[in-house]
Design brief:
The chain contains 8 helices and 35 strands. The protein is an alpha/beta fold and 430 residues long. Strands 3, 6, 7, 8, 10, 11, 12, 13 and 14 form a 9-stranded mixed β-sheet that branches. The protein has a 7-stranded parallel β-sheet with strand order 17-20-23-26-29-32-34, with no helix packed on it. Helix 2 links the parallel strand 6 and strand 7. The longest helix is centred in the middle third of the chain and has 12 residues. It is globular, with a radius of gyration of 23 Å. The relative contact order is 0.12.
Length: 430
């Protein structure tokens, strides 16, 4: 079909992947990088999971909406080669806020971000639009969800998963009738009437979504859960619940991020990265194979390419290019790419971001838990959290529930110690 001499590319369904959030609950881990670009599982980045789900589900056109600290994310995605999304018609497109003739607007809400890209969606003339977040770890066949949407002649289909009823008040809760049609929904109800929690994954019939976005365009911070879904509900649109029972993890807190990584190294992992029929794809650098010295110890770990292990590793996830020197002992920890750990250093239950250097004879994760003196909402776990490009000098002791970002020196540690609950943030806020 031609239109004014140009090809109009018809797609049945395209995906819009919301990847512009900071992920402030990950603290120093996202001070310099968007949450979807945070490393995961020793090889991947969080955004690899929804992108892989798309191509495995036959969705070959994906708009990725970026905003906060987009450089790492944009570089990682590139033209979409690892996910087979480098296509002449469709493929992956980075959609950042841009200047218009009238004004220049940041994305101010999840729905506002989609509204600002209506022209992009229209260019594919889709029947359906899939809305995704870029910060969850899961595998889902979106084609099955689309079939469900069609079979119900739905205007909107919301993915939801059952949660323990005692935890339901933390989520947006869906109430359905016997056919699966949503009759009501409650945002974080004190007394939930259902245990079906919204996953923030939606399929809209495009004509319905387009009209809703335009009608709600003037709402400040326009959001799907707060504005678009209620608008569709009040208008009488057919909204159905697609119940998902597989693995799904919101890695929005330091605790859940640590847990999700640790679950990968269980004897029988709940979330399997090695399934042949549902591969997780990522951009991989050309690196030499890992090296494990003859006198090193490794028990129940994931170890990335190019890592050099001379010390001892237990129950840990180790990224590419990591170096663990002689005598170092790492337990229950996540070390992202190119971290270097000095000789005889002991690390217990830590998350250490990329390109960080830990000196010799250090101890991380010692003492008793203490409440954070920096941010009680973010740092509420017995973890040592260190941001990327940080330096920890030799011979220091660091307690639990601590946060460090930047190049630190011995003088930053009174008596060569950072007590539990303490923090050192250098070079700006984190």
């Amino acid at each position: 079909m031609r239109d004014r001499g140009d090809y109009v590319i018809k797609k049945e369904m395209i995906a819009m992947l919301l990847a512009g959030g900071q992920g402030s609950r990950l603290g120093v881990l996202t001070s310099k990088v968007a949450k979807p670009a945070v490393a995961f599982g020793g090889k991947y980045r969080i955004i690899d999971f929804p992108l892989s789900n798309c191509i495995n589900s036959g969705v070959d056109t994906v708009g990725v909406l970026t905003q906060y600290q987009p450089l790492r994310l944009n570089t990682h995605i590139g033209i979409g080669i690892p996910w087979d999304l480098d296509r002449n018609r469709g493929g992956v497109t980075i959609l950042s806020p841009y200047e218009r003739s009238g004004n220049s607007d940041w994305y101010t809400g999840t729905a506002n971000a989609i509204y600002q890209n209506i022209n992009y969606i229209d260019s594919y003339n889709p029947d359906y639009v899939l809305i995704l977040g870029g910060d969850h770890i899961y595998k889902m066949d979106y084609e099955v969800m689309l079939d469900y949407h069609k079979s119900n002649n739905a205007d909107v289909t919301m993915a939801a998963m059952p949660v323990p009823i005692e935890e339901a008040s933390r989520f947006g809760i869906l109430i359905t009738d016997d056919t699966g049609r949503i009759t009501d929904f409650e945002e974080k109800p004190a007394h939930p009437r259902s245990n079906l929690a919204s996953m923030g994954i939606y399929i809209f019939t495009w004509s319905v979504l387009r009209e809703a976005l335009i009608k709600n365009a003037n709402i400040a911070n326009c959001d799907f859960g707060m504005h678009i879904i209620p608008y569709c509900h009040e208008k009488g649109d057919r909204i159905f619940c697609y119940e998902y029972t597989g693995y799904w993890k919101d890695v929005g807190t330091l605790g859940s991020y640590w847990e999700a990584n640790m679950e990968l190294i269980d004897i029988v992992p709940v979330f399997n990265l090695y399934e042949e029929y549902w591969k997780i794809y990522t951009k991989s650098d050309s690196m030499p194979p890992q090296y494990i010295a003859s006198d090193a110890t490794v028990e129940r770990c994931i170890i990335g390419e190019g890592a050099e292990i001379y010390g001892a590793l237990y129950n840990s996830v180790i990224g590419p290019g990591v170096i663990i020197e002689d005598g170092a002992v790492i337990k229950d920890s996540i070390l992202m790419g190119n971290v270097k750990v000095g000789k005889d250093t002991k690390i217990t239950k830590a998350i250490i971001a990329e390109d960080t250097v830990i000196g010799d004879h250090c101890e991380l994760g010692v003492g008793e838990y203490a409440e954070s003196k920096y941010n009680k909402k973010v740092y509420a776990f017995d973890l040592v959290t260190i941001g990327e490009n940080s330096v920890i000098p030799s011979g220091v002791r660091i307690g639990k529930n601590t946060a460090i970002s930047g190049v630190t020196e011995t003088a930053d540690y009174p008596d060569k110690e950072l007590a539990s609950g303490g923090y050192i943030i250098k070079g700006g806020e984190a």
